[in-house]
Design a protein that fits this description.
Porin, 2 domains, 16-stranded antiparallel β-barrel, 1 helix
Amino acid sequence: MRLCYILILLLVQAAVSLAHEVPKEILPEYNCDYAPSCEVGPGVYGKINEPVTSKFNLSIGGFVKLDYAYNSVNFGQSGSVAPASGSIPKSDSTTGKQSQSIFTARQSRFWLKVGGPTFLGAKTNALIEVDFYGDPSAASESPQLRMRQAWGALNWKRTSLLFGQTWDIFGPMGANTIDFRQGASFGAPMGTRVPQIRITHKLDLNSSNSLNLILGVQDPTQTGNNSGTATAYSNNVGSMVNVAGQVMWKSDVLGVSPGYYGFSMNSFTAGLFGLYGSQKVTIPVLGDKSVDSWGTGIYTFVPILRSKDGKNRAMTMSFEGQVYMASNMAFNAATALNFVGLNNNPHAAKGYGLAGQIIFYPTQDIGVSAGYLRRNAYNYSDYRANIEGTTDNFQKYNQDMFVNVAYDLNAAIRVAAEYEILNTHYGNSVAKGTTTMNGSAGSGSATIARLAVFYFF
């Protein structure tokens, strides 16, 4: 027993000595408001701002977001956001006659950023970002993590190289909605994140103007062939990667004004964007056929009322807009379908989209946004029965009108409210063996009232 006491005493003395050897500034500072059980729940009741260390410089961030949405129609388990397909239930359908009230915190996000060592004069960095939308059908208390972004980059003074998963190069505009969808299915196909490698170069024209050039290759996901979900008429027998790019003129002459969510202050921007790819598909009886995927568009951002010092948002106003034409690009919702036509002659579905929005900050802390978005099928007569399940009807066009207001209570907490009106107009497919359209197939409309509370960290 005496030996045990001696061992305990030696251990206590060693711990005290070790504590004296550790610099005070790196020891945790405990919150003892809950004495006598000091720091009984670290990270919950105690001090949570402890140092984060890594092999390289590491920072963490993200936001907590609670959404409430009231929908005049029933969008199902993912009803907290606009439908990814852009399809609104028809007014005479069962779900079109049901309203929906839904809460969710799954749109909360978490990211890690890393600043690493230099390489050939370039600064290196990386980012991993996740949210909790991995399985929308799961119960609210058991959401799954979903990888949003995961990339590494080398950044020189005017050139950067990025590899990993990040935003699709096609369609730079995202609607400034509280809705998680950002108008992606209604004329702003920016919401897709795809594996890619891209190079960005800034070409200075003079002290106030520059050209930003982006060129990259992306995952060829148009027909679903790479993911094993090909239909009988589109079994994958060969795919090209998508080549995508942007050419944007930027000018500081008009000053800067707030962009998406008021986070960034952007200068005047105008330019072109585009994408090209090709897939070979197997068609019954006829064999293999190449189907091209392409898209091109124009984008602009205009500071209508500039920031007085480049930072303050009070009395600033911005306009952002884009138009595009696309073919076989349902993977990012630029078109509603991949293919149209009869089973023995499928060809790429074509469509176009347009989007425009105003962002206005009457004060530093209050932001108001309003916008209109539309996606349209290009040639209605191309649609035939029995392709991609469109035996009865197809989306002729859909549109989104929104207005919202956001108020920053402080640097961390934001409250926001939004009102959206969504519409989808359907058309009947041409019956097999005929050339005559069967007329209108009805429409669906939804009004959405949305409230959200953010905590940015």
